[in-house]
Every structure is written in C-alpha cells, then in structure tokens.
Amino acid sequence: MSGAVLVAVAAAVGNLLQGWDNATIAGAVLYIKREFKLESQPTVEGLIVAMSLIGATLITTCSGAIADWLGRRPLLIISSLLYFVSGLVMLWSPNVYVLLFARLLDGFGIGLAVTLVPVYISETAPPEIRGLLNTLPQFTGSGGMFLSYCMVFGMSLMQSPSWRLMLGVLSIPSLVYFVLTLFFLPESPRWLVSKGRMLEAKQVLQRLRGREDVSGEMALLVEGLGVGTDTSIEEYIIGPDNELMDDDQDLSGKKDQIKLYGPEEGLSWIARPVTGQSTVGLVSRHGSMASRSGLVDPLVSLFGSVHEKLPDTGSMRSTLFPHFGSMFSVGGNQPRQEEWDEESLAREGDEYASDTGGGDSDDNLQSPLISRHTTSIEKDLGPPPHGSLSSMRHGSAMQGYAGEPVSSMGIGGGWQLAWKWSEREGKDGKEGGFKRIYLHQEGVPGSQRGSLVSIPGGDAPTDSEVIQAAALVSQPALYSAQLMNQHPVGPAMVHPAEIATKAPIWSDLFEPGVKHALVVGVGIQILQQFSGINGVLYYTPQILEQAGVGVLLSNLGISSASASLLISAMTTLLMLPSIAVAMRLMDVSGRRTLLLSTIPVLILSLIILVLGSLVDMGSVVNASISTISVILYFCFFVMGFGPVPNILCAEIFPTRVRGLCIAICALTFWIGDIIVTYTLPVMLKSIGLAGVFGMYAVVCLISWVFVYMKVPETKGMPLEVISEFFAVGAKQAADAKNN
C-alpha cells in the first residue's frame, strides 16, 4: 500500500498550504494595519483576512463540475499554481488593492485544495486505510499552521518585521507542491475509468497497489459508474460442490442453487439462497429496534449490520474462500490483449441479446471473466465470436488486462464482486443477462452450518467450509442492457457502456440514494461550522493570557504581538498528537463511533466555559478551568468533528456525481465559515461570551443527535458498496414512510 500512502501524503500538502496561509495572515495583519493605517478602517482589515474565504467560496461553486470534466489532478496542479502566484503577488503588494487581489487568488487555491484533496485520496486509497489517509489533510493543515506560527513568531522578534516576507514565503512550499502534483501525482483511477481510459486506470492502480493483478478492482471501478437504482439484498449459504459431480450436469432442475466456479479444474462451489441467516438481511427486512422506533434512519442500521460481522482481516484478497484463494483465480490460453484503450481496440459485443429485467431465473453465479461451463442458451447459439459478451462465459478462461492471469476479485473489507447470470424465455427464445453482486462474508467456518447446504451427489467433504454471505444485487454497469443497442467504450467484457461514461447531469442528484447522501453530507458540514471551533479559536489567546501565559512571556521580554503568536503556535501544537490518534482510530473504531464519543466532550467543555464566564471563582481558578476546557475542546474536535465531515463527504457519493456533490458540501462549508466568522463579534456584543458558548453547546447536542440518527459507519467499505447501501437505505426509508 506504500504507493497509495505516498500519493496521499503528497496530495495533503495542499492542506498544509491552507493551514500555513491561515496562520500567516493572522500574524501579518497586525503589521499590515500599521503600514496602511487601517486602525480606523476595520472593514478593509476584515476584508484582507476574509478575501481568501470569498475566493474559496467562489471557486467551489464550479470546482466540482470542472473536476468531473477535466479530472482531479489538473485542478490540483492549478491549485498549486494559484498558491505560488498569490505568494509572489503578496510579496510584491504595493498597496491594499493588489494585496486584496493576491488574497483572492490565494482563496482560489485554497478552495480547490480543500474540495478536491479528500476526493482524490478517497478515490486512490484502499478501503482498509482510507480513513487514516483521509485524516492526513487535517494533520498537515494543523502542521502547516504550527510551522507558520513559528516562522511568523521568529520574524516578529526582528527589529522591523516584514509582513510581505511573511506572506510571500508561501510561494516556496507552493513550488514544492507544484512539482509533486505535476510529476508525482497520478490521475484518479476512478475518474479515468469514468472516461473509458482503461489502460491508464489499470497502470495507475498497479502503481498505487504495488502489484500487477488489479483485475477485481478494475471491474469494481466500472461497476461504480452507475448511480445505484433497483438494488436489493439477498442472502446465500456458500459451500463446496461435490468434487465427483459431472461438469456437464444440468442444473436446470435445481432452481434454488447458484453455481460458483473455483480456480482449478473441477473445483466449484454451490450457493443457496436463504432467509434469516444474515445480519444484513435481517436488518434489511425488519430493521433494528432503533430504526423501527423511528429514532434511527434504516440506512444507519443497515451499515451497522455489516460492521457487526466484518472480518478481522484487512487483506485485499478474498476472505470468502480462505483455503482456495479467490473463486475468480483463473488460467487459460486466450490471446493476450496488450492494448485496452478505446482508441486502439475494435468495439465489439453488441450482438448478444441481454435482458436483465425481472422474472428471470437464476442458474449461475460466476465471474464473467471465467467459465468452464456453458449454459443452455450458449449451446443453442453455438460458439460465440471473440470479444462478444457471450465469450466471457464460454470455453477457456480469460486472461487479465495485460495478459496476466486474473487472480482475485476481492475488493477490500471482506467484500467480493461477482455477477449472477440470469436466463428467461423471451419472444425470440432464451435471453440472458447479468446482475451484479457484492458479496460479504458473514458466516463461520464449516461444521457449524454445514447442514444448511445440500451438496448434489453426496455429503460435503469433512474438511470443507460453508460460508454465510449477504449480497447486494443490482443492475450492472459492466454488462448492461444498453449494450444491445450501442457499442461499449472498448471491449464489451471489460469496458462500460457509453451511457455510463457521460458527464453527470443535475437530475442524478435527485436519485433517492444520492439525495439521501446529500442530506448527510450537507447536514454534517453545517453542524460542524456552528459547533464553536471558530469561536474557541478566536477566544483562545484571551483565555491563555488570563491564565498568566501572557505575563510569563512579557517577563521574558516578548512583546504582546509576539506573545499572541507564540500562544497560537502552542495551541496548534497540542492538536497534532490528537490528530495522530484519530488517524489510528479512523479505520478501527470508525467515523461514526469517533463522532459519537468526542462530541459529548465538546459539549462538556463548552458548558464549563459558560460556567467559568458566569461564576466568579477567582481569577486563577477561572483561568485554569477555562484553559483546560479549551485544550480539551481542541484535542477532541480534531479527533472527530474536524476531519470526519470531509472524510464522509468524499466517501458517500457515486463516482459519476462525486465531484458535483462534494462541491455542494464544500460550498456549504465555506458559506457556514463566513457566517460564523462575521457573526461572532456581533454575537459577543449582543449575548456575551456565555451566550455564544451556550449556543455552541446546543448546536453540538443537536450534532450528536443528527450523527446518531443519520450518519452511517463507512469504515473499510469500498466506495461503490457504500453508494449501493445508500440506494438500498433510501428505498427502505421511503417504504417505511409510506407504511
């Protein structure tokens, strides 16, 4: 996973620059006021600080759509250039107006980085460490603030500090970021697949994962192009087939059985649909106690049911078949295919009648990339042409994307990707089609559940395993009905249909699953902004000065301006260990658990701050209590409510609309930031410090309730599976409302 880690670290430098800029302007504005004589013009002073917020807000309105059109990497390169140019212009700034323009450019760079870095990391990281890597922007942002405060503090000790130099230094790390984005960061493989650039996507994935075989994940990325519709949950018990069973035995009489094929000749598995054995299935049908009472969204219970049974392993390899490797490992002698882009390959595959509608009978569950058996429809049709949809199920197994054998269809977090072949009688005879299945292991090994599966032709071998699995079943993007009427983008068996690669449209946002995800994403961004972080940051220097830190520093000969900078540096330094803890816990405890456990500490800290400002217990006691409360608030905020909203927003949307949706969430973030920043001084004058912190405590309480009711746990799940769950959850919520 080292490739994905290094790429995430490089991308997170964009957030380091944001933190650097935030801290630098906070120190530099003290000296800007003196040079331009802004003491009597607080509006201009506020505008110098706020111009980057305005720029970030403006660029965010269009960044999502552009990112879906041009890609993630070009916008990160543009972001680094904007940082660099703004640093040079701030270094030059002969007057306030040029400075304001430079701050606007800086805001554009900040807006692009803050919006797209979480998306980029989510799309390149493996599911098992996605939370850890997506907490890196929070860590680098705070690290950038600390480094910048230290730099500005050092400059403030000079005889005549230069604010231009303070602001202009930004161009140096910006240049490093530009080099990294231009020469080191690859394009997001999910975006490449969405544009039909399969060869490039495969090469990027190989680099990120550090292995040649990325076949399973490539297929997953293609399947993720569809906005989830008509998804259902099924349950299977999976066990080994009788090894003496005749390969040509007709299964048409065993309608309740689904056949899985193993990696070696003669090795196969039987899956039998069951009811009531799977935690996911039970919750899907009946809901949890909390969701039935109306307290919790059915979606939250559905996600929770997965994590109750999540396997301990973090391996990307299959966990469904631990002794036999992946059910999709194959060999074969099909000709090598060296080129996979649409420019270099003939478009084939539209000659096969496909029908994935309802009313069909399920005879086989298998990867379309392999088969040692033919179904009755293929016997009627005869040998298929090379490259057609039917060839993926005929004769010898297919080779991998560059000729290497496909060795795994494990997609992370205990999930496997498969396709279910369906046949039914049509007006022109038998018609067939595929349905996509995301399988998740839920059961325990063998003997405890062996009686639940009947193996044709005899009993299962004594050392066999019988595994319980939940399955998300929906229409595929890889083998869709549209292929009847159009050419696929590249070879039919591995490329999406043209309709799947089209740009997102606004109507996609009204898909039930997407709409449900937007409620979660926008809601948590609004609540984060109004939870009090800006108010506590604003008030921290005053609290620490009351605690005697300012007096101590003045005794050392440090001016009040320098002392405030040093205090801010100490505050940000306290954040770094807490963020490091959050990075460790993000994929262990999970996002939802971190929020539910850290928000109560925020509420308690704010209540103590309110009491400290209302009750006079002596200056020393009050200052000590307030200092401890502020430190607790900071440490627990950056463990939960700081990084989690951005992580969630980068995970919960389908690939086709991810850029658009993340821009909506980011726009909410920036607008909330502007409102809170500019209303804080007004509220301090009108309702006082106790009133402001009391209001923040109420918002934190509302946030906890919102998280408990609406925010699901997404740790360790592939992004595409998360989208499917939102589609299922939205459907269940609608059904519950109707009933």
UniProtKB/TrEMBL annotation:
Record carries keyword Transmembrane helix: yes
Catalytic activity, reaction form: D-glucose(out) + H(+)(in) = D-glucose(in) + H(+)(out); sucrose(out) + H(+)(in) = sucrose(in) + H(+)(out)
InterPro entries reported in the protein's UniProt record: MFS_dom (IPR020846), MFS_sugar_transport-like (IPR005828), MFS_trans_sf (IPR036259), Myo-inositol_Transporter (IPR050814), Sugar/inositol_transpt (IPR003663), Sugar_transporter_CS (IPR005829)
Keywords tagged on the record: Membrane, Phosphoprotein, Sugar transport, Transmembrane, Transmembrane helix, Transport, Vacuole
Pfam families per UniProt: Sugar_tr
Cell compartment(s), UniProt: Vacuole membrane
Domain Major facilitator superfamily (MFS) profile, residue spans: 7-715
Membrane topology: Multi-pass membrane protein
Transmembrane segments: 43-67, 74-92, 98-121, 133-157, 163-185, 560-582, 594-615, 627-648, 660-680, 686-709
Family annotation (SUPFAM superfamilies): MFS general substrate transporter (SSF103473)
Region (Disordered): 328-405
GO MF term list: transmembrane transporter activity
Top-level division of the source organism's lineage: Eukaryota
Biased amino acid composition, Polar residues: 364-374
UniProt keyword annotation of Phosphoprotein present: yes
Annotated GO CC locations: plant-type vacuole membrane
Family designation: Belongs to the major facilitator superfamily. Sugar transporter (TC 2.A.1.1) family.
Name of the protein this chain belongs to: Major facilitator superfamily (MFS) profile domain-containing protein
Source organism of this protein record: Fagus sylvatica
